Amino acid sequence: MRLERELMRGAGPIAVMKLLSTGEMYGYELVQTLAQRTDQVLAMGQSTLYPMLYNLEAKGLVTSRIDKTTGRRPRKYYRLTAKGKKKLTGDTQQWVALSQALVQLGVGPASACKAALLPGPLTVGARA
């Protein structure tokens, strides 16, 4: 299952920044890793990824360098900046809070949803 455009617009940048927090990567590597590590849920084409990377770079959240190693085509590598690391930390906290709130509403892993939807203990004869 792939995410709809609006969900991807929110999830894509944090996913890319999270991958870049482990080290620099080039575009095609990001595309492949996102698809593989998320079972295709966050799969995106290069036409989606590169504008996102350019936007993150314009905001100072990522930086890039071109590797012109002889014997192969030049590659542009991206890495997270200090500002990007700070943004990733804040965004991660927001996504965790959102995920927890959705699980409490019954949207999330099946076992968590089941527990969230079960009624609390019944008290016979109790008055409010």
Task: Provide a compact summary of the structure.
The chain has 128 residues and is mainly alpha-helical.
Give a written overview of the molecule:
The protein is mainly alpha-helical and 128 residues long. It has one domain (5-108): Arc Repressor Mutant, subunit A. It has 5 helices and 3 strands, in the order αβααββαα. The protein has a 3-stranded antiparallel beta sheet. A hairpin with a 7-residue loop joins strand 2 (62-67) and strand 3. The radius of gyration is 20 Å and the shape is globular.
Overall mean confidence score, pLDDT: 83
> What is the CATH C level class, in words?
Mainly Alpha
Helix content: 55-70%
Estimate what percentage of residues fall within beta strands. Answer: 5-15%
Q: What is the overall shape?
A: globular
**Count of helix runs:** 5
CATH architecture assignment: Orthogonal Bundle
- Give me the count of strands: 3
Widest sheet: strand ordering: 1-3-2
Q: What is the H/E string?
A: HEHHEEHH
Tell me the count of domains: 1
Instruction: Classify the fold: give the CATH topology.
Output: Arc Repressor Mutant, subunit A
From the N-terminal CA to the C-terminal CA, the straight-line distance is 45 Å
CATH H-level superfamily title:
Winged helix-like DNA-binding domain superfamily/Winged helix DNA-binding domain
Low-confidence stretches: 120-128
Structural class designation? mainly alpha
